[in-house]
Amino acid sequence: MHHERQQQVKVQDDTPLDEKKFAKFIASVKKSRKKLEKWRELHTSGKTWEANSFIGGTEGLSLNLDMAKIDQDGDGNITMTEYYEFIESSEKIIEKSQDLLLNSLVIGTLLMSFFFPLGLNNLETSDSSSDFFSEHSIYSISIIYRLLLSFVIILSIIIIALSLRLFIFFSFYINTVEGR
User: Fold this and answer.
1) Is residue 85, in this structure, part of any structural domain at all?
2) Domain for residue 84, yes or no?
């Protein structure tokens, strides 16, 4: 009998499912449903600010909606099929997020590789631009050029740092799909 139950509570890749974790997962889905009901009551009664601060803003609303959607039939019990569908969709979202972060990292690196060498070169004014613009205008344009170039380089560094940090965080620090 226990062996049959153990066979039923196996994840698709034959990893045994921790029943305590599963029970905790079901409780968090039920809690999300209750939070959404309370949010709806507050929101429909005109207490929008209170409703949004209760649920945790738009991020909390999104999270609770996603958690409540796991129980597709709304009976309060999560079947293994619903759980597997949640795990599968979560893995797809995680893969897409990691792809987005890697693409952001590549874009930041390409921006850096293109604009950093421009910052190392010294600008020389041509004779025709010296004739057309005043010396003060040329000086102002060169300052604007340097400031914008510095801004793009700093922005590239920020994009690289954030993308790398988030990719490492998603890939290595959060071990389970449920946590991600």
Assistant:
1) no
2) no
Q: Which amino acid is at 180?
A: R
CA-based radius of gyration for the chain: 27
Q: Which residue, 86, 80, 52, is CA-closest to 68?
A: 86
Split into its structural domains, the chain has a count of 2
CB atoms under 10 Å from CB of 157, counted, come to 14
pLDDT value, residue 166: 82
Asked if residue 86 is part of any domain, the answer here is no
Lowest mean pLDDT segment, chosen from 34-48, 118-132, 139-153: 118-132
**Confidence band of 1 (pLDDT split at 50, 70, 90):** very low
pLDDT at 8 over 60: no
DSSP string covering 27-51: HHHHHHHHHHHHHHHHHHTT-HHHH
* The last residue of a domain, from among 30, 50, 78: 78
